[in-house]
């Protein structure tokens, strides 16, 4: 992809790379309106995989939402007093998502981010996944695949739902990305096949956007054509 194509197809840029405790961030873009800039990117972790000792059983993962979507975080009060990970822990509908972040050994990586946006699948979103595939991802030897799945749900920047538009995309690697589709005057946002069903829950360092589907990069990522 040449620079002109990248400018046409995307609206903002934020690059995060981690090697151990090293964190490098570019300045965050404003969060109030779409902007014309370089690609928006998902969280990128570059470090040796540490295989967890314990395995999380699929039966230990909640697969039902206990709170209505519209009522999520309503009991928290001032959500901006919490960082995104702490805020995610406060919703019973996100219990499975939080457990998988822990299983993927990504909690500290997310907590170290100065700014972050989570596309947070509900428990019922995970219930829609193929059971055998979810069980496979929970196996210790498959932590790398689980990390890739979780990273697709994390942006190392603070992005409100108003910033997304259909010409935008989220880069996973240099040659693959998640499509973004915005319709109904910006009120319907779909990222990698996952619809945002409750948006802009603001934390002290970012946003949580609740989604109804788990983003699965191996199924929904789009590859760049040769020469683009």
From TrEMBL:
It comes from the Bacteria. Gene3D superfamilies: FAS1 domain. It holds the Pfam family Fasciclin. Residues 1-31 are annotated as: Disordered. Signal peptide: none annotated. Residues 81-215 form the FAS1 domain. This is FAS1 domain-containing protein. It comes from Pontibacter saemangeumensis. The lineage of its organism: Bacteria, Pseudomonadati, Bacteroidota, Cytophagia, Cytophagales.
